[in-house]
Write a structure and sequence with these properties.
The protein is about 30% helix and about 20% strand. The chain is of the alpha/beta class. α1 (about 10-25) runs parallel beside α4 (about 60-65), α1 (about 10-25) packs across α12 (about 360-370) and α14 crosses α15. The longest helix is centred in the N-terminal third of the chain and has 14 residues, at about 10-25. The structure holds flavin-adenine dinucleotide (FAD). Flavin-adenine dinucleotide binds near residues 7, 51, 99, 347 and 358. The site of flavin-adenine dinucleotide (FAD) has 34 residues, from α1, α2, α7 and α11.
C-alpha cells in the first residue's frame, strides 16, 4: 500500500489526490492535511463571493474525497502541529500543496501605514478566512486605490461597489457586508503600471463592470491604444478585453453615484498621509517595445483612504524545505523538491493560472510518484493519528467538515448559499459541542 500525505486541500491538493487514485486505485492511501478546519483553499477563501458557479468545482473535490481511500485532517498545521521530517518519516511521499497565502510587498515609502492592505488579507477578510477576521479595513473613505491589473483587482472593486441586492445570492460574510455596505466610497481607482494591451483581466470579469447597479466604469480615451491595435494581439481574450475597455471610454461619470476609474501607465511611488493612508503618489509611465513600463519622471497624486495591493502572492516557507526566496515558492524541478518530496499548484509555480491549471500539475506529480518506484512499509495515517493524539491536536475529519458546512447553510440569510463561520472556535464548536470527535 502506497501512503501519501498531501499538505493543503485547495485545488492542487485535490487534483493530486485525483491523479493518485487514477494511478493506483485501491493501492493508495491518501491523507489530505490542512491548517484550517475547512477544505478547498482559495475556492472558499479567494474566489469572489458573488461567483458561486465557480465554487461549484468543490463537488468534484468531494467526489475525490469520497471516491477512494482518502482522508481529510483539518485544523492541523504542518510546520507547527507536525514537522516535515515527521511526515517524511511516516509516508512514502509528501506533496506540498500549500498555495501562496502571503501578499507580495508593495515596497514603496509609506506602504506600512494603516490603510494599506494586501489582497490576500482583504479578500480573506470578506470571504471569512479566520486569519483575517479582525482586519477591520478603513472603509470610512470616499476614495479607494486598488493596485494591479489582474482579475483579483476586479474582484475587489466589484465586491466594494455592488449593492446589497446585487450581493444577495453571494456568501459575502456578514461582518464584511456590514462595513462594505455602509461605506461612503465614491471613487475606486484600478491602477496599472502598463497599458490596456498589457492587462491580465479576463473579458467576462471586465464585462461585469458594464452592468453594475450603482457604479460606472471609466477609461480615459487618451490612454487607449489607437483604434484597431488589439487586432494584432494573439490572445482572443485580451482582444475582447481591450474592446470592452474602449466602451468604458464612452461612459459618463454622472451616470451612477460611484465611479470605477481604470488608470493606466501609472506606477505607485509613495503612500501619502500622516498616521494612516490618505493618498497615493504615482509616476506616469510609458511602455517600451518589450512591453516594460518605464518611468517618465512626471508625478501626480490621488486621494485614497484605503490602498489595496493586488500585485501577487508568495508561498510561506516551511522549516526543512528548500525555499526560493526570490520567487517566493519552494525550490523545485518540475514539482520535485527532493526524493519523496514534491510540490504542486501555487506552491510550485507561484500565483498564476486558473483553478484548472492546477489539474495537470497534480496529475503530473501523481505520475512522478508512480515512476519513483517507492518500496517498503510506512506507518502512514496510523502514525499520523498516533502523533496527533499524543499532542492532543484536534483534527477535523471530512464528516466533521460536512457538519460545519450544514450549519453554515442552515444559518444563511434568505437567498444566500451560506453564512460562513469566520473563527476556528466557532467551526470547532459546531463539530462537537459536547467534546471533540475521536480520530
Ligand atoms: C482572490 C482570488 C480569486 C480567484 N478567483 C479565481 C476564479 O474566479 N477562477 C479561477 O479559475 N481561479 C481563481 N483564482 C485562482 C485559484 O484560486 C488558484 O489557482 C488555486 O486556488 C491555487 O490552488 P492551490 O491548491 O495551489 O492553493 P490554495 O487554493 O491556496 O490552497 C492551499 C491550501 O493549503 C493550506 N495550507 C497552507 N499552508 C499550510 C500548512 N503549513 N499546513 C497545512 N495546510 C496548509 C491552506 O489552508 C489552503 O487550504 C483566484 C485566486 C485568488 C487569490
Amino acid at each position: 500500500m502506497l501512503k501519501v500525505a498531501i499538505i493543503g486541500s485547495g485545488p492542487a491538493g485535490y487534483y493530486t489526490a485525483e491523479g493518485l487514485l487514477k494511478q493506483f486505485g485501491s493501492g493508495v492511501e491518501v491523507d489530505i492535511i490542512d491548517r484550517l478546519p475547512t477544505p478547498f483553499g482559495l475556492i472558499r477563501n479567494g474566489v469572489a463571493p458573488d461567483h458561486q458557479s465557480i465554487k461549484a468545482v468543490t463537488r468534484r473535490y468531494e467526489g475525490t474525497q469520497l471516491g477512494g481511500n482518502v482522508r481529510f485532517y483539518g485544523n492541523v498545521e504542518v510546520g507547527d502541529a507536525v514537522s516535515m521530517d515527521e511526515l517524511r518519516g511516516l509516508y512514502h511521499a509528501v506533496v506540498l500543496a500549500t498555495g501562496a497565502p502571503e501578499d507580495r510587498p508593495l515596497g514603496i515609502p509609506g506602504d506600512a501605514k494603516p490603510g494599506v492592505i494586501g489582497a490576500a488579507a482583504f479578500v480573506g477578510w470578506y470571504n471569512g478566512h479566520p486569519d483575517h477576521a479582525d482586519l477591520n479595513p478603513p472603509l470610512d473613505t470616499e476614495a479607494v486605490a486598488i493596485i494591479g491589473n489582474g482579475n483579483v483587482a476586479l474582484d475587489v472593486a466589484r465586491v466594494l461597489v455592488k449593492t446589497p441586492d446585487e450581493m444577495a445570492a453571494s456568501d459575502l460574510t456578514r461582518h464584511a457586508a456590514e462595513i462594505i455596505h455602509r461605506s461612503p466610497i465614491r471613487t475606486i481607482y484600478i491602477i496599472g503600471r502598463r497599458g490596456p494591451l498589457q492587462v491580465h483581466f479576463t473579458p467576462k470579469e471586465v464585462g461585469e463592470f458594464g452592468e453594475l447597479g450603482e457604479a460606472v466604469p471609466l477609461v480615459d480615451p487618451e490612454q487607449l491604444p489607437e483604434e484597431g491595435a488589439e487586432r494584432q494581439l494573439d490572445d482572443p481574450g485580451l482582444r475582447k478585453t481591450v474592446g470592452q475597455l474602449r466602451q468604458f471610454a464612452n461612459r459618463s461619470p454622472g451616470e451612477k453615484a460611484r465611479q470605477i476609474r481604470f488608470l493606466f501607465y501609472a506606477r505607485p511611488k509613495e503612500v501619502l498621509g500622516g498616521n494612516r493612508a490618505e493618498g497615493l503618489r504615482l509616476e506616469r509611465t510609458r511602455v517600451d517595445g518589450a512591453g516594460q513600463a518605464l518611468g517618465t519622471g512626471e508625478e501626480f497624486d490621488l486621494p485614497a483612504g484605503l490602498v489595496i495591493t493586488c500585485i501577487g502572492y508568495r508561498t510561506l516557507s516551511i522549516p526543512g524545505v528548500p525555499f526560493d526566496n526570490e520567487r517566493g515558492r519552494f525550490m523545485n524541478e518540475d514539482g520535485v523538491i527532493a526524493p519523496g518530496l514534491y510540490c504542486v499548484g501555487w506552491a510550485r509555480r507561484g500565483p498564476t493560472g486558473t483553478i484548472g491549471t492546477n489539474r495537470p500539475d497534480g496529475f503530473l506529480i501523481a505520475e512522478k510518484i508512480a515512476a519513483s518506484g517507492v518500496s517498503g512499509e510506512r506507518p502512514g495515517r496510523d502514525g499520523l493519528e498516533a502523533l496527533l493524539r499524543q499532542r492532543d491536536i484536534w483534527a477535523v475529519t471530512f464528516d466533521d467538515w460536512k457538519r460545519i458546512d450544514a450549519a453554515e447553510i442552515a444559518r444563511a440569510r434568505i437567498g444566500a448559499p451560506r453564512e460562513k463561520f469566520v473563527r476556528v472556535d466557532e467551526m470547532l464548536g459546531v463539530v462537537s459541542p459536547q467534546g471533540r470527535s475521536d480520530l
